[in-house]
Amino acid sequence: MRPEGDVRGPGTGAPVLEARGLVKVFSRYRALDGVDLAVHRGELLGIIGPNGSGKTTLFHCLSGVLAPSAGRVWMEGVEVTASPPWHRARRGMARTFQIPLLFPRLSVRENLLVAGQEHRGPLPARFVQWGERALRRQADELLAFLGLEEVAQAPAGHLSFGQQKLLDLGMALMGAPRILLLDEPLGGVSPALGSALLDRIRALHRGGLTVLLIEHDMDAVMELCDRVAVLDHGTKIAEGPPAVIQEDPAVLSAYLGE
Amino acid sequence: MRARGSAFRTGGLLLVGAGLALGPALWHPSYPLYVLTLTLVMGVAACGLNLTLGYGGQISLGHAAFMGIGAYAVAILGKRGGEFWPAWGAGIALATAAGIALGVPCLRVRTHYLALLTLAFNVIATLVMVNDEPLTGGPLGISNVPRPRVPGAPPDLALYYVTLAVAAAVAAGERALRASQFGRGLVALRENELRASTVGLSVVAYKVLAFALGAALAGAAGGLLAALTGYVDPTPYTVTQSFWLLLMVVIGGLGHSEGPWLGAAVLTALPEVLRGARNLYLVVFSLLSLALLLMAPGGLASLLAPRTPPLPRRGARLPDPEVPSRAS
Amino acid sequence: MLPQLLVSGIALGGVYALVALGFVLLWQTARTVNFAQGDFLTASAVGILVLSAHLPGLRMVAVLGGFLLAAVVLGAVFHRAVVAPLLGRGFLPLVMATLIVAGLIRILAADFWSPEPQPFPAVLPGGVLHVAGAVLPVRDLWTIGVTAGAVGLLSGLLRWTALGRAMRAVAQNRELARVLGIDAARVTLAAFVVNALLAALAAVLIAPLYYVTYDMGVELGLKAFYAAIIGGFNSLPGAVVGGVIVGVVETLSSAALAGQYRDAVVLVVLVALILWRPQGLLGAPEEEG
User: Fold this and answer.
1) In chain B, which among 272-311 make CB contacts under 8 A with chain A?
2) Which residues pair with A238 in a beta bridge?
3) pLDDT at B29
4) CB-side neighbour CA atoms (13 Å) of A186
5) Do residue B202 and residue A104 have CB atoms under 8 angstroms apart?
6) Residue C17 φ/ψ region, left for φ over 0, alpha for ψ in the -120 to 50 degree band, beta for the rest
7) pLDDT tens by residue, C252-280
8) If we measure between CA atoms, which residue out of B104, B255, B288, B285 comes closest to residue B183?
9) What is the pLDDT of residues A109-153, one digit of tens each?
10) What is the pLDDT of residue B315?
């Protein structure tokens, strides 16, 4: 399973994803208060922080699900601040969700096929089954990679929570993304499945995929990530290699002061 | 169970197909032929609505307006000396354009507001049909609508077979669409619009296309209806008729392939059957429709479809299975 | 001229507001869009006329009887027989069912009551009032007063009674309300009864102005639908505001524009408003999904 990615190594070249001064206000509540972020090719950047620090809101603004109140977002140097999610998806951004969002009445395989079909040519191509065979091959590979072959025909809504998380990941991968945003992939998942997920993420990272990861599981974060950024109350309070972050007093007080 | 149901279905379809193809040749000319043609025409329009509403998830309360556009195009161009076929094509193109024009602003709004915009469109279209006398002939409409001519065949039989061909093409096309990537994407869009968007599905384009296709089919049906009755006036294209189409689709089974055809058959044939009851027929008809709805809210087609087990409610999910950890 | 038009417009708007209120109430508490709303008005008017014919000289009794009948048949029976079985089985089947009921009312009225327009006795005092040079119809002023009173009563019901609180809870979050022990079915029934009473009241207010016909409910229902949307389908005050706006726009435009496209004015205003502000004037943007 070779996802797209440059194998030159992390930290080289223009940032795959960059954001400056992101602000998001809901009525009176400032979920994000001026966040800067840069993710470089091939690196695995972790986002951590106490509950309510704005991590998922950040993802929503980066992926286009929400429009930021202020600030800008670029993908490989091209501004995408006002682009809808599907536009960013076609430029190579993929994401998963805390609670997996799927197409419950479509089969597992169909979920994957839909997730991949829009990346192959414009809309009219959908009427002539453009690239369908290659699509199916890719879906089968992913089913194997994720260990979901047994349930390929089942409606996605019938899957267990952990299986749905795997499918969520699979759907994100179908588009051969340049950058993958993972929102708490290990949340609510059994330890066995969790470690299986970690294996996949590790494999993807090793294959050169750029990843942005929100997680609460500190062991996983420290082990996987090249760099870690810490959010608290909508601002970034620290950023650096995992070892440094672990010792940072500001980070510790943010978590303990909860 | 699946195989048996499928054989039953294929057998039934073949029977119906044979009946439709051969019956009229033996029957004609007669009132039943008119009713049958009318049923097929309404079936095409209902198919369009099913596409927009059942697959695309876009509420369209003004679908009869698109029929009206197709019908009046045929009548108006016919008045200027045009033949049926090019006028019909023009009507379809116009209806499609109207569908796109309506679809785009509708994307800004949801559910009941969408319902409102489509309703408003229908009301305004009816106002134009009634009031713009020089163009549309006002409340009295236009007569002497051109019919498709097939050399050697009596006109009503010719129209029937043309309609049958169109209906068959539409049914086959709809099947193909459902199986296509577009059809899959449309269902996904209905299931979870947010997720569809984040995997690259262009929400705007899909929805507008669903509208446009539905409008095109309605326009085609409208043109055929005009040819069938021989004249156009505003009555078959009002809001009431839009609701009639909606009822067809809902009773037939929203989102199912057979739905619109079943609905069209029931709602076109039933009034004819009940015609003997004179005044009471509308009351009986309403009560019957209500009963149908109460018994099968998912439509008649849902009674015929293979049973899919319902999705588990939240919280009642299966536990995670043991997934082998792959060393890589 | 203008003050009189305004007063008439507001009075008409008040009637629309009552019907629109019912719409929004049913939507909020029972997720039902009742397309038979306008025809409920017709049914109430016809009911009162029929009772009046059988009870000569006892007009108020007939009116009260009409209200009672409305509450029972258009409220409770309608809820039990038509709505309850279809709730949760999809939005459209329920909408279609209400449409069929609407058609049924029309057919029954036309065939079994009268296909011809019939007059409705005035319940409110007539005459005119001279205020600062303007000539204001007393009936319109009374209509505004009665409507305001009804709206006030409804607000009071919702804010200060246990039932009203339960209704608001169900409207906000049905599941949570059920978990908290609120009987959603009882609340829904109450909503339908209130709705029927609102329709009956609107009938009594508007029927004397126009003749009662079997299809008077069609346009009235449609306009009330527009009013509810303008105000924001999830806002009760919005329904009142929307109703008044529709009433005023309609009265002013029928005075200014001759026949023909005047109906279109309300529609155009409406469409423009929805495109500019999709949630209506006072509505809150609905949650996605």
Assistant:
1) 308-309, 311
2) A230
3) 61
4) 20
5) no
6) alpha
7) 888 777 666 666 777 787 778 777 776 66
8) B255
9) 999 999 999 888 888 888 888 888 999 999 999 999 888 999 999
10) 43
Query: Which segments of chain A belong to CATH 3.40.50.300?
Result: 1-92+178-258
d(CA B205, CA B199): 15
Predicted confidence at residue B63, as pLDDT, reads: 93
Between chains, do C96 and B250 touch, taking CB under 8 Å as contact? Answer: yes
Token pair of B279, please?
């005044």
DSSP state of C155: H
Separation of CA A96 from chain center: 5
How many domains does chain B contain in total? Answer: 1
Is B209 at the interface with chain A, CB within 8 A? yes
Q: Which residue of A has its CA nearest to B186?
A: A114
- Name every chain B residue with its beta carbon within 8 A of the beta carbon of A171: 195, 199
Instruction: Identify whether B281 is part of a domain.
Output: no
DSSP bridge pairs for A41: A12
Please indicate if any CB of chain A lies within 8 Å of the CB of B188: yes
Q: Determine if the pTM surpasses 0.90.
A: no
Query: Hey, of A75, A80, A102, A126, which one would you mutate to test binding to chain B, going by the most B CBs within 10 A of its CB?
Result: A126
Neighbours of chain B (3+ CB pairs under 8 A): A, C
A75, A101, A197: best mutation site toward chain B, by most B Cβ within 10 Å? Answer: A101
Question: Could you report the per-residue pLDDT of C74-128, keeping only the tens digit for each?
Answer: 889 998 888 888 887 777 888 889 888 988 898 888 888 888 888 888 777 777 8
Binned average pLDDT, 10 residues per bin, chain B of 328 residues: 60 77 68 87 96 85 93 91 90 94 75 75 89 82 84 81 93 91 91 92 89 94 94 89 90 88 88 69 82 85 68 49 40
Statement: residue C287 has pLDDT above 90: no
Neighbours of B326 (CB within 10 A): 13
Tell me how far apart the terminal alpha carbons of chain A are, to the nearest angstrom: 41
Interface of B with C (CB under 8 A): 53, 105, 108-113, 116-117, 120, 123-124, 127, 131, 192-194, 243, 246-247, 250-251, 254, 279, 282-283, 286-287, 289-290, 293-294, 297-298
- Would you call A86 and B180 a contact, using CB atoms and an 8 Å cutoff? no
**Residues on chain B touching C93 (C-beta within 8 angstroms):** 250, 293, 297-298
Peptide bond into A122 cis (omega under 30): no
Q: Report domain A1-92+178-258's class.
A: alpha beta
Q: Could you give phi then psi for residue B168, rounded to 5 degrees? A: -65, -40
Q: Which residue of B has its CA nearest to C102?
A: B286
- B231-232 vs B142-143, strand pairing mode: antiparallel
Would you give the distance in Å from CA A246 to the centre of its chain?
A: 23
Q: Is residue B98 part of a domain?
A: yes
